[in-house]
């Protein structure tokens, strides 16, 4: 099979490497152009160059000019993963068999840009990968391959995404092999079960201590490595200090009842009351400082029982 891979982020890199090592031919890797104040090459661009695969970063792959260039490659299939732009039907049509997409959820659940994060945020115990035949609808095409994966209760979204990317690469190759031999078995999605997984924003990181300890733990896990969960320590003598919360644990000890967000222990640990249960903050990062364990933070910051996190 002659393949064009469209991917930008790290989730697509294992699929690129796996396809390049297979009997199929990766003609080109297409990624989104670098953005931001300090633009850096996309992970897929870096991986393609290391593998000797031609790479290209068009402003949009849906332009007539981009389609004309890709059509010249005479690809059999587009493989799309973590690309960052929805492909129009005219773009999918440049390849003989259209396009397939690797998505990090059990579709139709969590259609959208952040399926892994929302699975962790909602406290799911299971997720997976789905490879679909692409259609103009967002993550709506028939499933060509599905793989279920258990979520560890302490696993962050970043850690889970790395696992799914590696497992998904093997699933992509299996589907490509089936398409090459005409043995694929598409299964239509049940649209009535569809849920959305929109991209997260920094505002999602603000901790609401009136929620349960379990819900806040899931929030901390889901927002790693970005945009990260945060709270403000309101100190009696100084201005409030922003704390980025990196790692937490449910606390089985019993403390006196207090208002959600109140600190109830600073003796070797940092325990905070929630709307249901207590949460131990294991690793925090004060504004402008590095990440540190709670006991180290407490040695340099005289937090008191009764202090508020809001």
TrEMBL record:
Chain ranges of the Formyl transferase N-terminal domain: 1-176
Question: One GO CC term of this entry?
Answer: cytosol
Annotated Formyl transferase C-terminal domain ranges read: 200-301
Leader peptide range in chain numbering: none
Kindly state which reaction or reactions the protein catalyses.
L-methionyl-tRNA(fMet) + (6R)-10-formyltetrahydrofolate = N-formyl-L-methionyl-tRNA(fMet) + (6S)-5,6,7,8-tetrahydrofolate + H(+)
Q: For this protein, what is any one GO molecular function term?
A: methionyl-tRNA formyltransferase activity
Which InterPro entries would you find in this protein's record? Fmt, Formyl_trans_C, Formyl_transf_N, Formyl_transf_N_sf, Formyl_transferase-like_C_sf, Met-tRNA-FMT_C, Met-tRNA-FMT_N
Q: Which Pfam family is one of this chain's hits?
A: Formyl_trans_C
Keywords, sorted A to Z: Protein biosynthesis, Transferase
Q: Where are the transmembrane segments?
A: none
Catalytic EC class:
transferase
Positions of the region Disordered?
182-204
Which Enzyme Commission number(s) are on file for it? 2.1.2.9
Q: Which family does it belong to?
A: Belongs to the Fmt family.
Functionally, this protein is described as follows: Attaches a formyl group to the free amino group of methionyl-tRNA(fMet). The formyl group appears to play a dual role in the initiator identity of N-formylmethionyl-tRNA by promoting its recognition by IF2 and preventing the misappropriation of this tRNA by the elongation apparatus.
Which HAMAP family does the record match to this protein? Formyl_trans
Q: Which NCBIfam families match?
A: fmt
Q: What is this protein called?
A: Methionyl-tRNA formyltransferase
Q: Organism, per UniProt?
A: Bythopirellula goksoeyrii
Organism phylogeny: Bacteria, Pseudomonadati, Planctomycetota, Planctomycetia, Pirellulales
**Gene name as annotated:** fmt_2
